[in-house]
Design goal:
The complex is a heterodimer.
Chain A lengths: L2 H19 L4 H14 L5 H7 L2 H18 L3 H12 L4 H18 L2 H18 L5 H15 L7 H9 L5 H27 L7 H8 L10 H24 L3 H16 L4 H6 L3 H19 L2 H13 L3 H18 L2 H17 L6 H14 L8 H12 L6 H28 L2
Chain B lengths: L1 E4 L5 E7 L3 E8 L2 H15 L7 E5 L5 E6 L3 H10 L5 E4 L1
The chains are: A mainly alpha, B alpha+beta.
Chain lengths: ~425, ~90
């Protein structure tokens, strides 16, 4: 191994350690790690820029703009209150409906946005029912991570995988991941109801209070709502067709975002742009450059070779190793840097002789996205909900979350294990 | 704590304080006051704090506003700023 490779590994490990320790903001750490790769001459500036996946960034920015504008219409609050009323104010039904809404929304919006939209309404519904909101919040965390796994645009790991592997378009993600996510969701929701059923009891008077809410008044701008929903619908159709249209997913998302801005006018521009999570965008940029150091110095190739030796190059064993490794790793470390490291490694495995890489990609997607449910720090949505709960005076502890979520994560990975085995290696 | 007054011909406010915060039941009696209450609502829904002040409309046209403990004074000041209250003062 060359000195350059050793330097690259050292910078990568130190950066990773700082990201895990959360002593400094992860964006500052990732960008610093990426810059060090360039400063030490491990990659040139041109190589660094070449490794930044602008498709991932464009997709994220486009969707963030679309959601920022749509959120202003009040439609998400409308849906949540409507669900609570359809549930007749009964807490267990509300938990089920809010979990399903969170999962579906997370499949098409990013998980953090989804929980930011659903959690405030959840607090209010729980408060009106005089219930502890924590069972609802934990259910929303878990179903948001599970729902996000179902589509190319649902979770950053999927966006990164879809962006790096052009043949895996939106429809392929939907066809390969959504069936198993529906099964996992059904099992998860049943488990959540069984776990929390004793805490979810309220009086008929309090349930009746929910029925008095007027969800129609939550729609603040019906013209904007029509425009937003039309463009959102067109964008989702665009994602479904992007493979056939030979357009990248970022092109679809940015077209949707700027079409909506064209329709709404410049009044919304500044606010929408300010709501883009630039921290996340720069975090991605830093990571892409950081991992490029490992790619350019041959470290990734070496790791891929070692993994292949471990599994004997057998596609089934390699897929299952990736599934479980991604799940356990993603439960404890951020799944975005993990996936950023795994993508070039899986590509290298293709070069080393595994002809059909698809089961490996689906294993990575399932492991990395579902693994985020394992602990409170496993995914951004978990940390955000815990932060919001704490602000409200409800503490979601690391171990109290893990006690519920880790076994559910293991169950979901066992189901995914069976699915990968049966669908890609037996049928 | 704040003491506040309002024009009873235009608005009626009932406040319930608990450990987590305060809940305000607001009955508006004029359309201009409804618009002012909606201004307050837009102001809080437009900020980046998602759980500070939560507005809910009821079928009978009244509002329920759930305010986090640390935001009660800010909420009242902004309700005053948008002319939903006539006066506020320290008690």
């Amino acid at each position: 191994m060359t000195n350059q490779a050793l330097f690259a590994i050292a910078i990568f490990l130190v950066t990773y350690a700082f990201i895990i320790s959360e002593k400094l903001h992860r964006t500052i750490v990732a960008m610093s790690g990426g810059i060090l790769m360039v400063l030490f001459g491990i990659v040139s500036q041109e190589q660094a820029i070449h490794h930044i996946d602008f498709n991932t960034l464009g997709l994220l920015i486009g969707m963030m703009i679309l959601v920022a504008i749509t959120a202003q219409t009040g439609v998400f609050k409308y849906v949540a209150i409507r669900a609570a009323k359809v549930a007749k104010g009964k807490p267990i039904r509300i938990l089920v409906y809010l979990s399903l809404i969170t999962a579906v929304a997370s499949a098409f919006l990013d998980n953090v946005t989804t929980v930011l939209l659903i959690v405030p309404v959840t607090f209010s519904i729980a408060r009106q029912l005089e219930l502890n909101p924590i069972p609802f919040l934990i259910s929303e965390i878990i179903t948001s991570n599970a729902g996000g796994t179902a589509t190319l645009i649902g979770d950053p790991p999927n966006i990164m995988i879809g962006s790096s592997v052009p043949e895996l378009d939106f429809m392929k993600f939907l066809v390969n991941l959504s069936p198993i996510i529906i099964v996992i969701m059904a099992v998860t929701v049943v488990c959540l109801v069984l776990i929390y059923r004793k805490q979810l009891v309220t009086s008929p008077e309090l349930s009746a209070k929910i029925m008095q809410l007027n969800e129609r008044d939550e729609i603040t701008d019906s013209r904007l709502l029509k425009k937003s929903l039309t463009v959102m619908g067109l964008t989702i159709i665009g994602f479904m067709l992007h493979g056939a249209l030979h357009l990248e997913s970022a092109t679809i998302a940015l077209t949707g975002a700027f079409l909506l801005l064209l329709l709404t006018g410049e009044h919304y521009l500044e606010d929408a742009i300010s709501k883009v999570e630039w921290n996340t965008i720069f975090f991605f940029i830093g990571l892409f450059v950081l991992v490029s150091g490992l790619v350019e110095t041959g470290v990734i190739k070496k790791l891929a070779t070692e993994a292949m030796n471990l599994t004997g190059g057998d596609p089934l064993n390699t897929s299952l190793l990736i599934l479980w490794l991604s799940a356990i790793a993603s439960a404890f470390v951020d799944n975005i840097p993990f996936v950023a490291t795994m993508i070039p490694m899986i590509k290298e495995m293709g070069a080393l002789g595994i002809t059909n890489l698809e089961p490996l990609w689906w294993s990575l997607a399932l492991g990395a996205c579902l693994g985020g449910n394992g602990t409170l720090i496993g995914a951004s949505a978990n940390v955000i909900v815990a932060g919001l709960a704490s602000k409200e005076g409800y503490h979601i502890g690391f171990f109290s979350f893990m006690k519920v979520a880790f076994p559910l994560m293991i169950i979901s990975i066992m189901i995914a294990h069976l699915y990968v085995y049966l669908r890609y290696f037996i049928w | 704590m704040f003491h506040y007054t309002y024009e009873e011909k235009e608005i009626e406010i009932k406040e319930v304080v608990s450990e987590q915060g305060a809940s305000f039941q607001i009955i508006v009696k004029t359309e201009s006051m409804r618009e002012r209450v909606k201004e307050v609502r837009r102001y809080f829904e437009g900020n980046k704090d998602y759980t500070d002040v939560m507005f809910f409309s009821r079928e009978d046209g009244s509002f329920e506003v759930i305010v986090r403990t640390d935001m009660i004074e800010s909420f009242l000041i902004d309700a005053f700023r948008f002319k939903c209250l006539q006066s506020i003062c320290w008690e």
